[in-house]
Design brief:
The complex is a heterodimer. By secondary structure, chain A is an alpha/beta fold. Chain A has two domains: 47 residues, no CATH class; 274 residues, Rossmann fold, CATH 3.40.50.11440. Chain A is 34% helix and 20% strand. In chain A, strands 1, 2, 3, 4, 7, 8, 9, 10, 11 and 12 form a ten-stranded mixed sheet that branches. In chain A, strands 5-6 form a two-stranded antiparallel sheet. In chain A, helix 5 packs across helix 6. Chain A starts with 8 loop residues before the first helix and ends with a strand. Chain B contains 26 helices and eight strands. In chain B, helix 1 packs across helix 7 and helix 4 packs parallel to helix 9. Classes of the chains: A alpha/beta, B mainly alpha. Chains A and B meet through helix 9 and strand 11 of A and helix 24 of B.
Amino acid sequence: MRIHRPNNPLTEIISLTGKRLNRRQFLKFQLKGALWLSVGVKGLALPAKLHANAIPDISVVKGKPGPATRLAVEQLGGMQTFVKPGDKVVIKPNMSFANGIVNATNTRPEVVRELVAMVKEAGAGRVRVLDNTLCQPEPSIADIKAACQVFNEDIVHALGDYDFYRNIKLNDKWFGFNKTDVMKDVLDADCLIAAPTAKSHHATGVSLSMKGMMGLVFDRWTMHQQGLDDAIVTLAALLKPKLVVVDVSRVLSTNGPRGPGKIIPMNTIVASADMVAADAKTVEICTWYGKRFKPRQIKHIRLAHEQGLGRMDVENLVLKETVL
Amino acid sequence: MTFQRVIQSLSLGIFLLALWRAPHALLGAWPADGSLRMDPMILLGTVVAGRKLAPFLWITGCILLLCMLLGRFFCAYLCPLGATIDGCDHFLRRQHDRSSPSPSLSCTGLRHLKYQLLIFILGAGILGVSFVFVAAPMALATRLYGLIIYPGLYFLADLGLTTLRPAADQLNLTAIAYAVVKAPRYDLQWLTFSMSLALLAGGVWTPRFWCRNLCPSGALLALFSRRPIVRRTVSQDCSNCGLCARKCPMGAIGMETEDAKSINPFRVNHAECIVCLTCVRVCPTHAVSFRAGKQSGIEKIGRQTPTISLDRRRVLGAGVSGSVAAILTLTGLKAPSSAAGPGNPVHPAVIRPPGAIPEKNFLARCVRCDACMQACPTNTLQPLGWQAGLSALYSPVVKPRRGPCAPDCTACGDVCPTGSLRPLHPEEKLKAKVGTARIFRQKCLAWEFDKKCLICDEVCPFDAIEFRKLPDMHIAVPFVNEKKCFGCGYCEYHCPVQAVPAIVVEPMQALRLSGGSYRTAAREMGYTLETKPKAGTSTDDIGPQDLPLFQLDEKGLPPGFTE
């Protein structure tokens, strides 16, 4: 798995000062330094993208779930940026609970339906909406399945049978989570899209796109044995979605993941190509247990950031916010 | 195909569909236990051992009355086990038939065994111990098909699907590619198989070995069809060829002595005749007919109709043995007891399904047809082995490690033919507590290993698990609220700890009512068994008074958040 590590300007400075500078190099160095200073101290550590008018890192849209989903993805360059014609696409919403829509434990069906529509418009081949449900499969996926009836295709499935999974090795050296079984559909897909719903989680603080990847493995129970936060990051390094669309139309602010808990209407969709950034932005904009928290206060988000899986320093990322 | 074969196949088909819980479109209003209700032995078990007048008494009453009119027709036309035995005999006896001139006449000396078995079961039943399950033909048939044949077919279907799946996936046939067969698995399969095999293997010696010699239901029906109104008569055209006697699957014709050589086609034991009409069909001179009314002249010429000798010694012997067996059961350490006080050891694995009546009555009434296990959608109901003694063999228990008991499901009570599992309204079922979960702290990931695991809480439909932050612990640890715990076993099923799980359901505090409302009983006990999460509240402001469901840690952080 390719892990993107941003160039650190500090290393550049050291390499420059290690040898004699000519005038041109010196001027360049001065100019860069001025630029970095203008970005701010935090920018020195991790640079933001400088072309602010281009595609943002995070797209936040306020509005009704369906249209907001569409606009949020369009602000990131449109679905064709992520899905090429003929691609096999897997959308992973949270549809693990048979609690009905009112309890805010599953992704809103409108969000999933809109995503499927956009993926199909981008010319995708095989589209699947998949989850390994916690509650009984049929009632859990019923709402999303009903919403996706419009496509006249059998795309929403809860995969509980071992035959749908394939054992794979995980890149983990430090705590023994070195293999797991992942849905074949996901391993064979060209594009994975995460569509979690915003909710709290007793063990991991929040359950968003990274935590949601546990719904693509067969035996997620053993992940608790290996240490949940670490295991989530290891899994996220393998199952890195190309696009994350977080359904923040409301947030299950307390007593997640199962509820019933305090549900706060947010009327928002957060999208990003960076799963850590999407999760971090969601943590930042929501109220959890009556308080505000920083993304770094969620251990698995912090670990993922430290591992270079994505960025939780959302204040340094380019954000585009729109109200519909 | 003869009339008898058509009816017999239909009856077997209905039985199999009902056992398979076929959708109503196929079966209409036919109840899942429709065939079971017709078995007189199941009725007798319920009435004698269970001390309860079964509501379907009239069905058996009708069948017994019909026996007095038509003879022992039940065995040839309605009994699914009889149909199975016929089919099996057909397969077993092909070559044998050629070598033996009159196989139907052998083994006549064992016929009294079925009466003895019947009296044995009655003798035990009078003392409140039911051995109906050992020999009731319907229970044997449901166990053979439900615990052996259906799981085998499911297994093969699963194998087939697995083989087809890659091809179906390529062709985008999602209906097949994503279809899943949840193959059920049952305990005691070797015992069930051996019992069934032994029963069917009798066909090697004579056709319908079981029906002639051992079936207690057959014995009861035989008692009512000793001289039916419509019965076999032979006209003067009889050429005395003896073909009817040789072909009779029950060996009911020409039983003068137990010597196979003396055949008299005029003589028939009506109690053994199952009215299959084979003799009418095979007779070369068309001399045989079944008709009502007076005896024909020929029958008068022949000597009296033979009967099975059932002397006082045998009757008494069987009855007393039954009672002795019952006493042995009741004096064992594992004697079934409904009392919950001291001195009554209960095996922790004996978690009865919801709606099970108090244990002693339950075992007396349950005929081990195992229809509940077939109906159970999660495969959690399993036949019990020897943990509660011989008298509890094959009785249903909840096995949470295999599957949880779904809160909204009432299938087991709906199909129980004897009312040992009460049919419950879904609201009542929610209160029919089957046990209580217990946490093994030494194995718990949170308690012992400092791992953030809360699966038991996550999966509990009754919200009975509470995570508390203890002062000297790093992370929140689970506690069971026994007032809220139903014993459904979702926690045990999902617990990631291998071998003995860290949370286990035990039959502690189970509600066992022979009558009355579970809602009332649960209220009286102070149980608050609720599954539906209250609809989420939706307001912007959140005050401390609104936050009873979680605890902040010593740093004032909610669960899962760090500094």
